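Consider the following assembly input.
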Amino acid sequence: MYRIAADALIIDNPDAPSQVVLITRKNPPYQGNFALPGGFLEPRETIEKCCIREAKEETSLDVEIVCIIGVYSDPDRDPRGRTVSATYLCKPVGGSVEGSDDAASARWVSLDEVKDLDLAFDHKQMFHDAGLI
Amino acid sequence: MYRIAADALIIDNPDAPSQVVLITRKNPPYQGNFALPGGFLEPRETIEKCCIREAKEETSLDVEIVCIIGVYSDPDRDPRGRTVSATYLCKPVGGSVEGSDDAASARWVSLDEVKDLDLAFDHKQMFHDAGLI
């Protein structure tokens, strides 16, 4: 039995991506670090609904899923215990970026800037797997 | 906390797919039904290793992952309890098809034939999502 999470890689324009929404984490682990918005699956929701809900809670954006990037399942990827993440490429369809819930803040960051940032967990790998950096 | 499984959609040729490996299920639920090979994630393996291991155990084929098809997480998709499946398109790289372990049998089936079959769980949806039927 495992925890399951969804993470949202929200890009400004799927056809010509230049910016992504990053949060700063309010709580441990990786408190204060940049990260993708995301969180744990609830008992009666699908993983896609979880992704859209967590994106909204943490960034105030309404998003749609564009496609799946991958499933991240290294046994040691989360210091809280075994957590498998499904990560989706998303695009905004409403709202404007404001951090809330588990996000101390949220903002658009250029993909050029992401290359030089340390991100929480294995979130930087997700950018590589999506072909964005 | 959830169970996590990997399922393998093994096609003969990723560039021109015409056949897929189906098993018949040895055990409930869906005992005797056609299904994709697959099974539950073990504590210290990644989901990709799980997919490759289960494909080998149930079909005797060595496979490589081509790409992810999707994550299947409807809360009622498995009568045994909440189970989230990551499903991968795979290609054979060694061995020949022979059912074993949880598979009563395994064989190559044409994609034309799959259209008319009842498959266990939501496995038919995976063919649609992969653009194969």
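The two ends of chain A are 33 Å apart (CA to CA). Ask yourself how this observation constrains the way the partners meet.
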